[in-house]
Amino acid sequence: MSDVNAFFKFYNNFVEERQENKMLQTVILKNNYQDSINLMLLTNRINEMESVSMSQIMMGTNANKAILENTGLLTDEASQASPNDLMVVVDSGSSRIMENVLSEVDKFLNDLSSTKSETKTRSSESWTEALDHLPDANMALFSIPGEYGAVEMETALKSGLHVFSFTDNIPIEDEVKLKKLAHEKGLLMMGPDCGTGIISSLPIAFTNVITPGNIGVVGASGTGIQEVTTLIDRLGNGVVHAIGTGGRDLSDKVGAITVKDAIIALENHEPTDVICVISKPPAKEVRDEVVQLLQSITKPVVAIFLGEKPTAHEGKVYLAHTLEETAKIAVDLAKSVKIKPTYFEPVKQPSKKLADDKVIKGLYSGGTLAAEAGMLLSEALGLEGLVKQEGFILKSQGYDVIDLGDDRYTQGKPHPMIDPEVRIKKIKEYSADKSTGVILLDIVLGYGAHEDMVAALLPSIQAAQLQAKNENRDIYFVATVVGTDKDPQGYENTIQRLLDNDVLVAESNAKAVQTALSLKGIELTEVSKETIVYNGEKIAVPKASPKVMELLNSKPRIINVGLSSFNQSILDFDGKSEQFNWKPRASGNQKMIKILNALDDYEDQINEENHKVIDKIRNAQPFLRNVVPAKSVIPELNERTKTLLHAGPPINWEEMTGPMQGSVIGAAIFEGWAKNEKEVEALIEADEIRFIPCHQVHAVGPMGGITSGNMPVFVVENQLDGSVGYCTMNEGIGKVLRFGAYSDEVITRLNWMKNVLGPTLSKALQQNENGINLSVLIARSITMGDEFHQRNFAASLNFLREIAPSIVLLPIDENDKHEVMKFLADTDQFFLNIMMAAGKSIVDTARKEAKGTVVTTLSRNGVNFGVRIAETGDQWFTAPVNVPKGLYFTGFSEEDGNPDMGDSSITETIGVGGMAMVAAPGVTRFVGAGGFQDALDISNEMAKICISHNPAWTIPTWDFQGTCLGIDVRKVVETGITPVINTGIAHKEAGTGQVGAGTVRAPIECFEQALEAYAKSLGIKID
């Protein structure tokens, strides 16, 4: 241990040098009690002031004076301060610094409210929470990355929710699986890649504000729906439903599952008088099946299958060629007006024509609009027809039409209706090509779309126009605006701004293509259509799903999974929504996601197992029975082999960090095995001391956790089944064994605790046949501001209140009584160790014959964090432990802090400590400069990884909710939220002791290992 001696020599020299050169100034603020955490924050602020070399602001307790002495800041004035006095000690070369310091102190103490005062909108972090918040939800709206979409949508469908999937990039195999599942459950699977929808006149996702009416739309197309519905609106009619299905629904692999279910639903929906079907180019056999269904229903139908150029209407199905024609036929049907042979209208011919070698380019944010443009151009110019490659819809003889919403452009990037970046680049690229004469654009308005796409695109359009002018060539921009006057961006205003910048604007996409072709001197025409008899067979129309009919006959109640902006249209039109702030399950860890998905099939079994465990915790009856030498109740300490217990999972001497090794040395000296550290090291090298985890023998130990045979321990019995828990007694603060100190004063105190404190408490407890009911004491103390890890002030006083009358009556030396009573009164954290023993007795009951995913141990040894769960008994799952984050005493920083250690996280295991931060808001000062809101947020976060609440220990500042109950390893892995642990911070070198206090997060890897082990116990194997 020569390195320890060297450290102390260096440290003492450092202190002496500092004292010689100090200019210490002290002010004592009499009878001014302040919370220690606030004062640590205040000290940090003062230390940042110019001219301040070092400062410390503390209450005048003996322990705090010892800290001042250790850092060379104890002055004569400070040494005279009472525990209720506030000591302000500053080392500075400026004689007037105290004036500025006191001004800052006054400002700080007058403003201790939370820095986070803004209110927060409620949202959910899990499916369970979302469904709890909106129990009557009937739809889930998805806008999450496609790689995670299928699994989440399956969860929604299994929860009885219709799915609206704006999410794209879903494999076709998954789409088929999801749509078959939805059909089996009587639900609608709208999407994937469903860009828009209207349900009961409620606009959803990328959607326009459309007047309600009697037309129902089914669309295997997003912008196709938007084009048709906005045209219907501008023609003076309205739409009641627009059910998007995703563009692949009419493919041969999917087979129009959603289209058919939607048609059947609209057939049975009384307010719908006309059905309008819109589809991107379909598979021939699927298209024929859809037409057969349409011919079999009773309501009039207009349908467009893009890519087809119908020459006649067939039976009761009116077949349109363009989206504009579709809208006009639908309106006439809705008004019971006779259908016209043609709805074609020529556009005004331009005064100037482009040269023959000039070509037309189309840059579309909407796939259906791009397909329609490609179709019309190909028909008019005799091109090769539509393609689907690398985002191109048309690529022939220099004529290009691109769907910028294709997966190629949206993987990992926003949709072009939101982000103009890709289109701006393409405008620059194509406008620089001297063969380009016309660039076609769509400007899509409505909810979800860019708030001002015109402003975003105009600079690139103007630059292209200027470049062409400078090069003495013509280039035209022709736009169609998809929208209505009720859309947030404003339809008329959008058109006017385009016209003001020499952009030609057409009233429909079809007319925009007509305009572009007219610039080349080509005029589009449409044939007149008659109605011919349908000679195919009709079918018996299946019954509509009650769940789908309920959706269409009421306002949707939506769980919005992803983009929060999609809530706006729902709320604006009196729908209900719950924001689900989704993130990938298990932080995107694919192996863990597969395990969680597999465990979903065992939900009922796991819940039953878990509730058996948490019922034992909830019904626990811990009683403090006695204080006895550890060896009298722990057989392993009474054997011939010298044995020490330590905190955390198993560890050997060589792995132990400085403070734990220091505790070992102190314990060995205390037991009389050695006189100094060298002799202790010799015993260890001779393998004469063995180490056992406290948890292995029904014990727990704070910080280093070192427990030896002659140390007195609390004995707590859980009367529910007789399980016991043991823990050493709290030594107070300063230089103490648990932080690795082993000086003479430490050993002296341990001997006093063995000879006086322990026996006195034992005798006092024996006067009460049942001991002290700790659950009642805990319940009382939590209402007084304790969380039982960093804050035990009320509980320690309540314990003193319980035990003092018995101590007073003991026939022992009066001086011993006085010392014991004073020690209990002065030791604010005395109850922590009692709480730890109670926690151990509770979890050891819960662990008996237990199964399930409830965490039954959280512990750390300075190297590893250890977790145990109900299913796997004594098996440890470990990962490297973190260094606490928090506030450090003056002269120390995080570089000095030892990685976290101790069994005191047994408090968090049973739902208090960091889990119950809201009970003691001041403790959040260890996290940062926060207040009550931070405490509330932390406890709310911890509740998300727990199964229930403990009604025995209710928290007034949490609306009298009980403390968290039952950390579920599944929830930890799924959410990525790990337990917060309140902790003291030990110096990494043995003997220095405590240097701060703060919080630490348990590493997620422990819980992942535990989850995998649980899955294996069920026979689940994941590669």
Strand content: 15-25%
Count of distinct strands: 39
> What's the overall geometry?
elongated
Question: What count of helical segments does DSSP give?
Answer: 33
Q: Architecture of the largest domain, CATH level 2?
A: 3-Layer(aba) Sandwich
Q: In which order are the strands of the major sheet placed?
A: 16-17-15-18-19-20
Stretches with pLDDT under 50, minimum 5 residues: 1-20, 112-120
The top level CATH class name of the largest domain: Alpha Beta
Helix content: 25-40%
Domain count: 5
Can you put this structure into words, describing what you see?
- The protein is α/β, with parallel strands linked by helices and 1023 residues long.
- The protein has 5 domains: 22-109, Alpha-Beta Plaits; 127-344 and 535-580, 3-Layer(aba) Sandwich (Rossmann fold), CATH 3.40.50; 359-524, Succinyl-CoA synthetase domains (Rossmann fold, 3-Layer(aba) Sandwich), CATH 3.40.50; 625-835, Enterococcus faecalis V583 domain (Enterococcus faecalis V583 fold, Alpha-Beta Complex); 845-1017, v583 domain like (v583 fold), CATH 3.90.1700.10.
- A 6-stranded mixed β-sheet has the order 16-17-15-18-19-20, sandwiched between helices.
- Helix 25 (744-766) crosses helix 27.
- It is elongated.
- It starts with a helix and ends in a 6-residue tail after the last helix.
